[in-house]
Amino acid sequence: MTKRVLSIQSHVVYGTVGNKSATLPLQLLGFEVDPLNTVQFSNHAEYEIFKGLAFNRQNIQDLFQGLILNEFVSEYTHMITGYCGKAESLLEIYDFLVKQKRDGLTIVVDPVLGDDNKLYVSNDQIPIYKQMIAIADLITPNGFEAEILSGIKPSADNIRQVFDILHSFGPKMVLITSVIESNGDKQSLVLYGSDNGKLFKIYIPKIEGRFVGTGDVFSALVLGHLDKGLVKAYSREHLQTKEEKK
């Protein structure tokens, strides 16, 4: 069966974030990728200047209607969501996902709210995301977004409580990225995961710098390997050869 994903994310002309980050990795993993852009910006919004449009609810609805009326939606095996510029458009995406949810369709929601203790979006997107993650199979918040959704800042001491709250919304699989843990003078990034309540984590070396689009690539790659199971989807174990494992 052909693997086909509807990728509902941002688009920029200059740079690589959103659908420009997600499309190629998924294509290389054998997916047909249909990008549906939520915004059309000249460049990502962390630049001092950016121009373009955040599509409104009617714009997004028109695109969905074209897919529905042409009976394309039944072809999708996966759907993934990322950054959305307007709360009204996010609500339209939520309504669409509710109607399309069915057996055989995997829904991955990256609740793009912000990072580094700063919101990228308006506060009125938060309650919509709490509804949206309820219909997701997998969610991939970063540590700040997990804190916004759960009300608790993730740490090694309370991570099970955070997962319990996030699972209570509905998703069976949760990956929390970019949780910072200190060990003496060193800081590590920790990725925490929960597969139906079974917890695991991986330490990631912290590289100084500011990198954009990494979360979009990460969510796409996890989706692309999800058929191998959540643990192997986020780790590189399934890519190792027998010689490498010796």
UniProtKB/TrEMBL annotation:
The keyword Heme does not apply. GO terms for molecular function: ATP binding; pyridoxal kinase activity. InterPro entries: PM/HMP-P_kinase-1 (IPR013749), PyrdxlKinase (IPR004625), Ribokinase-like (IPR029056). Residues 81-229 form the Pyridoxamine kinase/Phosphomethylpyrimidine kinase domain. One of its GO terms (biological process) is pyridoxal 5'-phosphate salvage. One of its GO terms (cellular component) is cytosol. Keywords: ATP-binding, Kinase, Nucleotide-binding, Transferase. It is an enzyme of class 2 (transferase). Transmembrane segments: none annotated. SUPFAM superfamilies: Ribokinase-like (SSF53613). Its EC number is 2.7.1.35. The keyword Ribonucleoprotein does not apply. Belongs to the pyridoxine kinase family. This is pyridoxal kinase. It comes from Boothiomyces macroporosus.
